[in-house]
Amino acid sequence: MDDIKLVAILRGIRPAEAADHVGALIEEGFRYVEIPLNSPDWQQSIPQMVKRYGEQAVIGAGTVLTASQVETLAEAGAALIVTPNTQPATIRRAVAKGILVCAGCATATEAFNALEAGAQWLKIFPSSAFGPGYIAALKAVLPPEVPVLAVGGITPENLADYLAAGCAGAGLGSDLYRAGQSAAQTRQQARRYLAAWRDAR
């Protein structure tokens, strides 16, 4: 898989429409897809997408808060877990299950706690509230090999600023996908983000 660390966050996606959107994203070049657990019937969407697209992309879950949710997701075949906060017990359970963890954090203390628990990636959330300068300063004290993703308010227009600040990628939410939009709209936005990624790299 091409290592384009742009995570498509499909908050609100429904099982009946998930395949069209995930398929469009993968066709355009996305390799990471997150279905948040506050989406309708995610217990159906995630295993269905893992079965259909799991060999083409890393399919997983977002807004993961508890170790028990990790157990359910492991059984569903999720390969990625994204947390909104730094919860060591949740991170440890996912790592023990062999799942890639992108842990949410906002401070150096939270970041190092997440890494100590075994998180492989970090997400700075909400990035738009902090800005690229803050992330660059935080990156200066973090292990350089740890991928840091900007999440929250990332658009095709500002993606380059966060990559220049040292981010390895970004999580893309409502500017990429809003519940109810067509797969064609998702494809169009995916192309804009990938063009911005290529221009910035």
TrEMBL record:
Look up the EC number in the record and give it: 4.1.2.21
Could you confirm whether the keyword Lyase appears in this record? yes
- Alphabetical UniProt keywords: Carbohydrate metabolism, Lyase
Q: In which pathway does it act?
A: Carbohydrate acid metabolism
Q: Which GO terms describe its molecular function?
A: 2-dehydro-3-deoxy-6-phosphogalactonate aldolase activity
Q: Where does the sequence pass through the membrane?
A: none
| Superkingdom | Bacteria
Per UniProt, subunit arrangement is:
Homotrimer.
Instruction: Write out the similarity annotation.
Output: Belongs to the KHG/KDPG aldolase family.
- The protein here is known as 2-dehydro-3-deoxy-6-phosphogalactonate aldolase
